[in-house]
Amino acid sequence: xxxxxxxxxxxxxxxxxxxxxxxxxxxxxxxxxxxxxxxxxxxxxxxxxxxxxxxxxxxxxxxxxxxxxxxxxxxxxxxxxxxxxxxxxxxxxxxxxxxxxxxxxxxxxxxxxxxxxxxxxxxxxxxxxxxxxxxxxxxxxxxxxxxxxxxxxxxxxxxxxxxxxxxxxxxxxxxxxxxxxxxxxxxxxxxxxxxxxxxxxxxxxxxxxxxxxxxxxxxxxxxxxxxxxxxxxxxxxxxxxxxxxxxxxxx
Length: 251
What we know:
This protein is an alpha+beta fold. The protein is built from 6 helices and 8 strands.
C-alpha cells in the first residue's frame, strides 16, 4: 500500500505541471515545445508543478487570513505519508488532498494561459529561442520571424505580405501570386492552407511568355498546403515620410 500511495501522491503532485503545460500550449501555433531530451520533459513537468504548488499554497494562506478556512497542508501530507495504516483517517485526508490538487490544477490552468499571453505580449518567443514555439509557419507567414535576433531585417510592422506559391496538381504546375491575408495552421504543427487576395496565376511552363499572368474570378482564393511545392514571401511595410513643406505621405 505504501508504494501505491506514494505513486498516487507523486502523480497528483506533478499533475499541475502537466495542466500548466497543456494550458500554455493551447493555441494553434504552440501545440508543443522543442525538447532536447528526457531531462527537458521532466523539467517541464516537475518545475512548473513546484511553482504551482507554492503559488497555490500562498493563495490558500492568504484566503485563510480573509475567510474562515480550516486547511493545513502540512498536516494533510504528514498524516497521508506517515500514518497510512489508519484507513479511516487516511480516507478523510486523501479527500482533502484531492480537493487541494483540484485547486492547484485550476490555478495551473489559468497561470498557463496567462504565461503564454505574457510571452506573446513581451515578444519573448521572438527574442529568445527558449520560449519559441515549434510551428514556424506562424512566425514565417505572420512576419514575426523578422524580429528573430538572427534575422537582419527588423521592420516595426509588416503592412502586407506578397506570396508566390508554386503548386502541383496532377501533371500541371501552377504559380499563384497575391496578397496573403489569412492562413490556417494544423494541430500537428504544420500548415493547412493559405488565403490570397486579388490573386493571379500562370502555368510554370509559360514563365517566359508575354502577359503570362491572368486574373482569377473572385477576390479570394484558398490554396491547400498539400498542393504547394514551394512558397516565396515578400514583406512590405509603409514608411511615413515628411517632405520639406511639411506634407506627409505614405510610401
